[in-house]
Sequence to fold (321 residues):
Amino acid sequence: MATETDILQELGSVPSLWTRRHLLGLEELTAEEITLILDKAAIFRRVLDRGGRKIAALTGKTCCNLFFENSTRTKTSFSLAARRLGADTLDFTASSSSLSKGETFIDTAKNIEAMGVDVMIVRHQTPGSPHLLSQNLKCSVINAGDGAHEHPTQGLLDIMTIRQHRGSLKGLTVALVGDILFSRTARSNIWGLKKLGAHVIVCGPSTLVSRRWAELGVECCYSLDDILPRVDVLNLLRIQFERQATRPFPSVREYAHLYTMDSERLARAKPDVLILAPGPINRGVEVTPDVADGPQSAILDQVTNGVAVRMAVLWLMAGRT
Fold:
């Protein structure tokens, strides 16, 4: 089993290729930068597979989860990733903060930063919030989801899972199915997948899949059944009712009839099709239990890879000094 010294030697120092102080989205990253994150995440994934050994790579650093929306996987995995790297962690709860007394968003973040925070991990319902903080804070800012804009570490862990199961992404056809309009995960996936050479299809009801997505170089489709035979990866996105002012389709039952990935549709897909879902999954809506828990599903791999990706991102953000 590799020792901590072996792991640190394999990691090396933060490469000169990485010059960014913040991770705000995959739109701004190059293919080389995305690959660098994935390569470092692969090292951390091996560490997790060997029993989750802690590495003193960020000893003395402090990471703060500044979350203004509910989260299970993202918040927990960032906390776990920081602890596995030897960093201290701080969790912020908006409901019990001075925001209720009239303190501004920026002042709240600045006060937390003044306590010695090195990395601020931000989730907010307003698009652009992490970008605003990056212009007002000295510490590193990581976007953990800003409205319907981007969710870069989710995109990275999805791509890492595909690469883990399929090797190179070049030439693969990846379909993002469901709520494209309100999905920050879809946006991050589109930027990352295209930069690594995949062909991307966005598929869902016409109310959630505008033809304007084609301007980003993706294929638009409204029938899941039509694309099944040629898709290598299906990423099944949750319908985000909490972001929708009006219901984008007549009923959940109708949506499920047209877009749920079930055993019948799975039989018409490629034999080795890979099933992903960023979660939380609504069983029976985006995917049936037998498919979600079946051999072609990599949903739990995504969760484990989420810790590895976030370890890599935190190390790149705070490991230089």
